[in-house]
């Protein structure tokens, strides 16, 4: 059975059974009908996924892996903050009339800084460091820039990706690992989406850096389930679980900027039915 399924089930069960509620508190999110969107939440959730063992896609329901890849490329490869450059429509309600989400996500990745080695944006710096100083403890991207927050249509949720290289015994190539830090997460709508996104990013960066993809560690400060999502979660985590799918990349790609969703290979993805019409709090 998929380890990602079990991690998800345990996390949801723990939040529902032992989490704290925001019921009656002054909260920002609201439902489409205008009522307050309360949550059951847990602070400081940490989940670990070993990509050398399996790809962490849920089988309880299908996660759209090509859409996940397209969004992560939108941020870190195309470095865009405009939804017109993105196929999925997940950002539509936060975009202005021109399609921009403000100085968020890809905009931040694209900002260049002067280093002794030259001017580099955040992603180019990561790729340069992994090639030239792979054992540095300073390899990361950070999308949460306080000076630009007023000009972001939505504050970044998953904002900090820290890369770390290890040399495993009996392995000829180094292993690339990632710590993903997320300030807030709607567990039903976004948990496995974010996990799969950054697992794919880790796989792509590892491949072009001539490394093995290792562990993705996901830290969530505020992991929450909305009150109207609880019955959906209860049904979802009671479903049968299947073996994880086999997920790989086109091995002929050696430049991060050459990847497209056509280079994603998904095999034997058995899963339960999709959950439809999930209400989204904004």
C-alpha-based Rg, rounded = 19 Å
Q: Strand count, sense and closure of the main sheet?
A: 6 strands, mixed
Structural class by secondary-structure content:
alpha+beta
* N→C terminal distance: 34 Å
Return residue spans where pLDDT drops below 50 for at least 5 consecutive residues.
Answer: none
| Global mean pLDDT | 96
Shape: globular
- Fraction of residues in β-strands: 15-25%
Quickly describe the structure.
With 282 residues, the protein is of the alpha+beta class.
Describe this entry's structure for a reader:
The chain contains 6 helices and 10 strands; from the N terminus they run H-E-E-H-H-E-E-H-E-E-E-H-E-H-E-E. It has helices at residues 3-18, 65-76, 106-110, 122-132, 187-208, 230-236; strands at 20-21, 39-50, 113-115, 118-120, 140-142, 158-166, 175-186, 212-226, 246-249, 264-267. A 6-stranded mixed β-sheet has the order 1-2-8-7-6-5, with helices on one face. A two-stranded antiparallel ribbon has the order 3-4. Strand 7 (175-186), helix 5 and strand 8 form a beta-alpha-beta unit. It starts with a helix and ends in a 15-residue tail after the last strand.
